[in-house]
Task: structure prediction
Amino acid sequence: MDKDILLSMEDISVSFYTHRGIVKAVRNLNLQIKKGETLALVGESGCGKSVTAHTINQLIPMPPGKIESGKVIFEGRDLLKLDDKEIAALRGKRISMIFQEPMTSLNPVFKIGDQIADVFMAHEDIKKDEAMEKTVKLLELVKIPAPERRIKDYPHQLSGGMRQRVMIAMALASPEPGLLIADEPTTALDVTIQAQILRLIYDLKQDIKMSVLLITHDMGVVAETADRVIVMYAGRKMEEADVYSLFENPSHPYTQGLLNSLPSNEKYSDSTRLEAIKGTIPDLLTIGNECPFENRCPFAMSICRESFPEETKLDDDHSVWCHYVSDQVRTHTRAGSLLPTRGKE
Amino acid sequence: MLKYILKRLALLIPTLFGVVTIVFFMIALSPGDPARVMLGERATAASIEKLRHELGLDKPLYVQYGLYLQRVVKLDLGKSIKSGQKVSEEIRDHLPATVELAIWAMIFSTTVGIFLGVMSATRKNSWIDFGSMASALVGVSMPVFWLALVFIMIFSVKLDLFPTGGRMNIRYYFTPISGLYVLDGFIVLLKSGDPKVLLSALHHLVLPAIALGTIPLAITARITRSSLLEVLNQDYIKTARSAGIKERRVIYRYALKNALLPIITVVGLQVGMLLAGAILTETVFSWPGIGKWLYHAIEARDYPAVQGGIIFISISFVLINLLVDILYSVVNPKIRLS
Result:
């Protein structure tokens, strides 16, 4: 396997067995995260982004969840074959995670310094004093002012942005952070604070040379921070590309719809209405083998109802899973220019 | 903080006024004449009338009430009709036994209750969960006097493992220092190296403490389970797990401290109730505490004793709840008392 690859998920399918039936949350997903890169997982709520993330550090509640198939290879080991102790030893040490809600993600009854120091002590054989020193340094690194005093604060004494910084510090409280999974890290924050937090994650990634799996539904966040992007829809991977090709040349009709629905200055000048993708996401309980976007897709064909498409490679770094695009590519020799064009209808 | 405590103590006054009033009229309106009870069946009408006059029972009710209020304000609970001793002294004499029993019942019910609750919550829907919750339900539903009698029948009479009642082997002479016999026994052990007082005190405590602690145990177990289950669903528990904190630590440190708030409330209420509610247990086990004393006072229509006892229990109840509220702010930093 490629030496540059830190984590690779192969053919992962995850289902939830609820009393209403089997929810197929993630289906046959493949993804790779290279060392030092930021991979963005984009899609709307319920598309399987968070389930994918939780499959990596195995925080999916089982039951009702079940990983039906696949492998998660991290540093040569299949994480799905590790026992509870082994996976717990990786969590927070090599694979850490920050969550969407900084307001509820920190324990309200412990001082933040103690919470971070506790993570250090879980992974290294060190004394409390030493862990506290490291904590202060770490808080400095995530740019919290006066960290010596802040360690004695309780979470409710901090603002949302500060708490998210504390969360990030906690995720980095390890001798050797490898992968940071950021599950919608800025969704709950003010726009101005969002930019600061994204900047911070970006800077830390450069400093510490870790990889980041960024989960978001915000295309703006993707454009600013990601190296590569995977667009997910209803548990399926729709498009995968480096960030430049994706924004330059969005190929899947769903990706196009996502980008079309972004507010932009240009748009506001001639129309005050935001574009939306028509229809709603399919019910994951009843979904079969069809392309899940078929009912909303302006280019849907009869084959889209029958099977989910194979990968169509547009470029070395750009793949798409779409029957329509695949047809287009087959009928024309050069792919790039003849893709369904984005624009006003 | 001090201001808050003073405010709460000031609130004690209207509470007590209400308690005194209710207790006074409930007793005055209940049937039975203390003079008749005291003098026995064959007393003459004249001697009963004389005693009623001496006790002030012939005065109109509102005058009696006014006089009683006056005395209570002066912290004078009066004299027991039955023994002639001051009510406050009788309470003081009987208090240590009750406190000791309550402490041990609490230790038993809280430790075992929290442990069972944690086991149930972390193994939700397993047979351990069903088993402990089913026994908790049985525990809550069981009348304490019946349970106490069953305990005596099995463990004292049939198996002869524990004494049927009392606090101490009557052959052991020792002067109580604190009145808490386990503590006293410990002091004796330190002084003379003789453990028999300590052992006898503990031996006598086992059955009454378990009987008295069973209902609080069941309630604590159920509250712990539901509170912990709720906390285990919180985001910060996911954070702790994703940070690689060991599961045992996640549950006993990260989750349990958060789950403790409702548990403290319930346990606090139980302490208050144990001081009052030990009446049945103390009576069955002939435990010479406030409960048994109050039971005999009620039986004898000893008005001053009953009133004094209930007022005392009310004050303890309010004070314990104040203590619980202060404890709250220690456990939960978000609560600032003001």
